[in-house]
Amino acid sequence: MIPCEIHHAVITDRGGRRAIVELDSVSVVRWSRIRDDMSKALVRISTGGAKCCDILGDLRTGRHEIVIYRGDDRVWEGPITRLAYRPGEVEIDARDVMFYPYRTIARAAYNNAHPNVTTVTERMRTMLTNELFRKERLDPPINVLPYLDIRTDSQTARTARNTKPYQMTVWEDIDSMAARAGLDYTVIGRRILGWDVHHSIGQTATLTERDFLDEVIVTEYGMELATYSAVTDSEGNWGAVGIGQPGSESIDPYYGEWELLNTSYAEDVSDTSTPTTKPSTAELRSQAARNLAGRHPAPVVVRVPDNASLDPRSTALSISDLCPGVWVPLRSTATCRPVTQMQKLDRLAVEENSQGETISVSLSTAPGPLSGISTLGSDDG
User: Fold this and answer.
1) 192 in Cβ contact with 146 (< 8 Å)
2) What is 7-96's CATH number?
């Protein structure tokens, strides 16, 4: 059960350490947590008799931050990006601390072209550490690097990206890896987390239809079915993985042969006219395995509508459990096809207004395992 809590907000100086004013007469509080994107928050304050009205008039975007508490828990914080003053009301918009990398140019070159290949998470760590360092030297500092939480292991996706100075912002590079190269990221408070998309950063208790105020739907997606996956560099080099035992040509005896072909995403992104060392067959196979994961058998999805509302009276979860990227076992028994499936939390949205508090989530199917498939490549004959 998620107990009902009252939100309150505090304005702080840059870095979130020095409090300036605790806001009174708050009429609306809205905040979120999102996987692979920046989250937003909104606080609306009635200034009719508010003691802090003069201080609110002295706030400045780009310098001050807002910190949101739910009860005693510090649940969201980040720099103010919009201030709207109306007679009797002030509305404050903010972005989470990923807004600092969003407005930070990658001034150095970051060359992970072959043979300098690294993991997507370590590239993320290097760029954030190098480029945000100058903002940590401000007075006061942005206070982000002390909370950096980057998780890497032997199976973390690798990248051969190569960018030149002033080619893009730090956030653009990170977000591009999240879109195409196997990286996940999110922000909790001041903490920026980065990890491999196939890995879990935690697991919640099992949810069922009773935990939601919206309908749960079970769907099988045949368009996603695949039994064989190949990745090519478009120049005759390739790596492939398939379902089945070696020697069987990776044909599944029940589903048959359903093939995928993708182009390698471990590419130089700075200058496509300059020749670079091509990815190895082993790297192409690794990418092919990632593309095949979760596609055999045909994926069956237990789905709740995006932004489905949790029922706070029955759910076993707490706000602290709801970190984007965490895996959520979801069991459905109300349809003709009972299914239990691992989901991944993509988004949490919370709003409190005069009508009360609403907590909604968006989930997607967690990725399948990378093991249990046979491998082929252009050097196998």
Assistant:
1) no
2) 2.40.30
Q: CA triplet 72, 77, 79: central angle to 5 degrees?
A: 150
Given a contact cutoff of 8 angstroms between Cβ atoms, the answer to whether 48 and 56 are in contact is no
Is residue 201 a contact partner of residue 225, using CB atoms and an 8 Å limit? no
What is the rounded distance in angstroms from the CA atom of residue 267 to the CA atom of residue 107? 20
Query: What size, in residues, is the chain?
Result: 381
- Closest-CA residue to 104 (of 69, 73, 130): 130
The tens digit of pLDDT for each residue in 269-296 reads 554 444 456 778 888 998 898 888 888 8
Instruction: Kindly state the greatest CA–CA separation across the chain.
Output: 80
Q: What is the pTM of this model?
A: 0.81
Q: Report whether 1 contacts 316 (CB < 8 A).
A: yes
Q: Predicted confidence band at 307 (pLDDT cuts at 50, 70, 90)?
A: confident
Q: Do 7-96 and 101-196 share a fold?
A: no
Q: 233-238: list long-range contacts, CB under 8 Å, 24+ apart.
A: 233/263, 233/264, 233/278, 233/279, 233/284, 234/263, 235/278, 236/378, 237/278, 237/279, 237/281, 237/284, 237/378, 238/281, 238/284, 238/377, 238/378
Distance between alpha carbon 7 and the CA centroid of its chain, in Å?
A: 25
How is the chain split into domains, by residue range? 7-96, 101-196, 207-220+298-354, 227-291+370-377
Neighbour count for residue 282 (Cβ, 10 Å): 11
Which fold would CATH assign to domain 101-196? Phage tail protein beta-alpha-beta fold (3.55.50)
3-state secondary structure of 360: strand
148-198 pLDDT tens trace: 999 999 989 999 999 999 999 999 999 999 999 999 999 999 999 999 999
Q: Are 184 and 326 in contact (CB under 8 A)?
A: no
State the first-to-last Cα distance of the chain, in angstroms, to the nearest integer: 58
pLDDT grade for 314, boundaries at 50, 70 and 90 = confident
Residue 223 confidence class, pLDDT cut points 50, 70, 90: very high
Distance of CA 63 to the CA centre of its chain: 26
